[in-house]
């Protein structure tokens, strides 16, 4: 189901009892974080919050809109985001239909779903442009942008969809990169080294050109999710969002930059970056639960701010897990699993536990058929897109429930001979990894926690896991109630 815009999504959350309005004045400087953090730490992720009176501002702040399994699923218009994974798995099924009728029956629905996807350009202006500020009128201070944590370098836009174009091919990219406010019309642009926005800037630098960007806030929540999704470069996030919401994204031309933006957005901040210009960005209380250290990043010069007549400012906070962004990550874990399985069909399941902040820990189960297969899976994952950042990969047999972290720790401890089963590699690591020897470069480790085969040099007997015999279980089931134990 597609939403009309972000406020339509909030209205649905409210109807479903998922949104709490806060009328008390709460300060966007630190106080909103403290309230939101407490909400996010409630069992299940707490409610979405709409701060109607952020101190000193007329624009309400929405936070934690994606912060539970239910709301993340509602954001993508489904009962549960597993449905999207199932649908993708179905689309990727490589069967060849026999006969014309069968071909029509199997392929036509898939094609019709795909034809709903491409974004559409709308003539004229959009709802995101009901109010336009350019030149001297540009003032980021009018937006209730949060100062999240005490040691942060300043105020940060935390749910931005950053639109850029590849200067060579013209292809669009939309990534979520935080934006630090420096003053009324300049900000940082925290696209990390490995991200597509940074690559677009490098290509612009090679041509000695500035790069234009549009920072979009709001729109159908499927757009926000798409900006965070690890799509391969060249796959258009707006196409993916159209696929998720089953309706094309409507785009309009921005005011001062040659970029098309979602017409339903709450705010659009337009501007450009001179690739040679850098400034200290950070520190920032990050999703690792630590402050990411200040570093040099490009400077974004704002040429226009456009917004709706009555906008809502969409925000999040990141910090020590569990947090709202954990649900964006969980959706990605499930939605992208069928795509991983396309390359690695032995993978049965994968869990990126929130405590592992996505890129520190992956628990993977495989159907093991040959010697060394767990190592093959690790190396393949380290070569796949943003999975390259995974610091620890633990590979288990197919009968292990990797969604059960306790079970994984039990199997890990029992099943490894560390020297034999550990694989250490060096390579790119996440820019937020503060323990690596250098920013973005370090080591990663994999553990083969599977049952070992003779072909792997293991000639001892591998013991069975302890379980009770079925006939005894049945008898005890029959008398359990009478025993009065529980
Ligand atoms: C709340 C949130 C904040 C994020 N902030 C950043 C950031 O500041 N810099 C960055 O490079 N990636 C950040 N990310 C991760 C990227 O959005 C993610 O890696 C995305 O896939 C990048 O898109 P790209 O492949 O088009 O560059 C953030 C993700 C979330 C959910």
Give the key terms.
alpha+beta; single chain; Pnp Oxidase, Chain A; 29% helix; 5-stranded mixed beta sheet; 9-stranded antiparallel beta sheet; binds flavin mononucleotide
In words, what does this structure look like?
There is one protein chain. With 486 residues, this protein is an alpha+beta fold. The protein is 29% helix and 25% strand. It is globular, with a radius of gyration of 24 Å. The model has no long low-confidence stretch (mean pLDDT 96). Bound molecules: flavin mononucleotide. The site of flavin mononucleotide has 20 residues, from strand 8, helix 6 and helix 9.
Give unreliable regions as ranges: none
Examine the secondary-structure arrangement and name the CATH architecture of the largest domain: Roll
The CATH class of the largest domain:
Mainly Beta
The percentage helix is 25-40%
Shape: globular
Q: Per DSSP, what share of the residues sits in E-state strands of 2 or more residues?
A: 15-25%
Distance between the termini: 44 Å
Question: What is the SS-derived class?
Answer: alpha+beta
List the helices and strands and how they pair.
Layout: H1 6-15, E1 19-22, H2 31-40, E2 48-51, E3 61-63, H3 69-75, H4 82-92, H5 100-115, E4 120-121, E5 131-134, E6 156-157, E7 161-165, E8 172-175, E9 179-183, E10 186-188, H6 196-206, E11 211-218, H7 221-228, H8 237-245, E12 250-253, E13 260-262, E14 265-281, E15 284-285, E16 291-292, E17 295-307, E18 313-315, H9 325-343, E19 347-351, E20 361-366, H10 373-382, E21 392-397, H11 405-415, H12 418-421, E22 422-428, E23 441-448, H13 470-483
Helix pairs in contact: 4-9, 7-8
Bound molecules: flavin mononucleotide.
Residues 158, 173, 175-178, 190-192, 195-197, 228-230, 316, 318, 325, 328, 386 line the site of flavin mononucleotide.
